[in-house]
User: Fold this.
Amino acid sequence: MLAGKWRAAMRFAALLIGGVALAWAAVAQAQSGGPDPYPVIQGKTYKFEKIADGVYYATGGFGSNNVVIVNDQDVVVVDTGTTPAAARAFIADIKMLTNKPIRFVVNTHWHFDHTDGNSAFGPGVQIIAQDYVRTAITTFDVLHREPFLTSQGNAVPAQIDDLGRQIAAERDPNRKAALQQQLLAAQQVLVQLKDIRPTPPNVTYSDKLVLHRGNREIDLLFLGRGHTGGDTVVWLPNERIVCSGDLMESRIAYMGDGYFDEWVTTLDKLKNIDFAVDLPGHGVPFSDKTIISEFQAYLTDLVAQVSKLKAAGVPAEEAAQRVDLTAHAKYFPQIQGPGADLRGVKRVYAWLDERDHK
Ligand SMILES: [Zn+2]
Assistant:
């Protein structure tokens, strides 16, 4: 049966992708001095790693990695993924962990992969973030600007057009069938994206907000600007677990909304927290603060190189190809060669102008 073969091929593809992810996780853990593997509870969509009693790191969804904190009476989740459908899958899988109600959502920052699942949570749920997140979601027209456009909004329709052309030109029936499966998956993503209703936090804070939920203390900390203008770090002082969002991933973060010098000093404050493990917005858990210092070095190097090229009159597009950050590939294996993400380099240009004209 062809359908059976397709399914087998899809399973094989999923295994391959899973294998790559596992290998990547092992590399990242080895390099970051990461903790031992955690017990795993596999949901239908999300994988939950049990980090401490009632604290789970959720991966495998569409968008950010999330955190689930089960308290005496209720549940707090950190970040909601890229679409309402992703968040509904997340909520369904959380029922495997607990039947307590989700009462609080924390958004670590405003980017789509952390907030566009917000609308899937009911009106009784408090969605909490730093003040800037509400400003961003209510004033930026987030679905018509970066990072949504090149990551999803324009990317998925372009991928669908491209797959259509490939299918029309393909003569091999097996390859054509595989392309048709990819097309179907991309079309399903497009349907999910059309369902997004950007939903801002309904509770905001400026510097610090503490949730006391039974015996659990959950600190929401704004340590300063960095990855965006309003990143929250979630700190569980009793468990010594920190959730750093994309302010600090275990890989190179998106740079398109960065405040670069402040980012480096804000990361110093993250290092001052006496955490046993950091659960980042992307990548894998890590314990060794060396990776934070290495990321600070990357940021400093990127800005130094881009500043020189800008001063020499080089356009941002060319600068993005000319910068060479391969010296940092030991800690960040996603750096495969010279060059950097154009969106980040353009942001460095704009940020240098802002800084110099202050
Ligand atoms: Zn993210």
Observations:
- Residues 1-33 have pLDDT under 50 and may be disordered.
- The radius of gyration is 21 Å.
